[in-house]
Amino acid sequence: MSISSALNNATSGLTASARAVQVASANVANALTDGYAAREINLVSASLAGTGGGVRVASITRRVDPALLGLVRDSGASAHAGTRSNAFWQRVETAVGLPGSGLSAALSAFDTALISAAERPDLDSRLSAVADSAVALTGHLGRIEETVQQLRADADYAIAQDVRSLNEGLARIDTLNDQIVRLQSSDQSVVGLLDERQAVISHLSEIVPLREYPREHGRVMLYTASGQLLLDSKPVEFGFTRTPAVDASMSVGSGLSGLTLNGTPLSTSPSGPMGGGRLAANFAIRDTDAPSVQTQIDSFAADLISRFADPATDPSLGGTPGVFTDAGGALTATPGLAGRVAVNTAILPDAGGELWRIRDGIGAAAPGNIGDSTQIGRLLGALDRQIASGPGAPLQTAAATLGSLMSSLSRSRQSAEDTATTAQTRNQVLNETLLAQGVDTDEEMQHLLLIEQAYAANARVIQTADAMLRHLLEI
């Protein structure tokens, strides 16, 4: 080996060591950077590469496990969907209240007020307590409906935000694809762009689970977990229109927007092409879960109205509404009854009514015996009468009907909580595994020590070659 060859080999070794220091220091500096993939420097013998002796930096690559990354993304989508669904059912259960509180306490207060009035039907204070507790009961039903419809509006807003994020994210990934292709064609490093693209895809995977497929020249294609193509040569465009205010009568196509893909309606069911993530969870809340809750509280409101509109409860009615009404009129089957149920103004002094009608009958022509509690007893009997709250429903008292409602909501909340906990635990375990494959600062520091030794050795070769040349020149 000539002295010049030795100098060339040592110089290439110093260059490679310098690049290795850059890579190791970048790894240490970004150890806590979210989405950063540890870099590896790949060296090849320059003689094998056909470029002379020494060593050459072949490439700088990212350490990524595609299979594990895909599992983390899927688990993240499930965790976000579970969290969203669990939060919904928690809010609904809180609005309705647990046994002994909330709606249950309001119904119990009404029952207690009737019992008290039956003991002293001559006291207006006792009759007033019945009217007040009835108003409180209907008010609580109204507030539950407001909560349910607000949750639907919140889900609608979240859908609009996610659709915008999807469109912007897909456009950004398409731009990154083009930049990566362009830089690779000119032999420039693209690892930073790969990091950014991976972070964007991981963020979008929270909205809908994604599958990433490599294409030529560093491009990627994106599909949903159900096989819907989102990005190839160009990204798709999602369409959605937010509804500022939502009420119980609204549904998809009737006041509420559906989801479109390039102008074509797209299924939003949990088993559809966009299922599995936060987007599908919000659509389920808006279009399935919340309407189901609304139907249940409407059914309880209808049961309440029917009990007191029965002639057996108040023979004086003659076909007119009883203590509880549908916005002042007879019962109708349109959605939103829980928000419309109201106390008959005939027994509300503030609305021009008269308290004695609680004791003598809403349709009574004149006050009767102030000591007669017969009619109040019938009102109490209405709460205890076993009737069916709907077709196919069992015969139940008012308290049992409410208990069935609360049990159903509690089961749904518990199921959502269990699902969310399982999904979050799985996502946490997979994330920890992924992080374990990231930057290991101890390993990087050990690597730096080896680089230092290699650098010193190459520098020593240069010093020796320099000394040999000086000696030759002195001869």
TrEMBL record:
What are the subcellular locations of this protein? Bacterial flagellum basal body; Secreted
Which part of the chain is the Flagellar basal body rod protein N-terminal domain? 7-36
Is Transmembrane helix tagged as a keyword? no
User: Which Pfam families does the annotation name?
Assistant: Flg_bb_rod, Flg_bbr_C, FlgK_D1
Flagellar hook-associated protein FlgK helical domain: residues covered: 90-308
- Record InterPro entries: Flag_bb_rod_N, Flg_bb/hook_C_dom, FlgK, FlgK_helical
Which domain of life does the protein's organism represent? Bacteria
Asked if DNA-binding is a keyword of the record, the answer is no
Which family is this sequence assigned to? Belongs to the flagella basal body rod proteins family.
Q: Name the chain's protein.
A: Flagellar hook-associated protein 1
What is the organism of origin for this protein?
Pararhodobacter zhoushanensis
- Tell me what gene encodes this: flgK
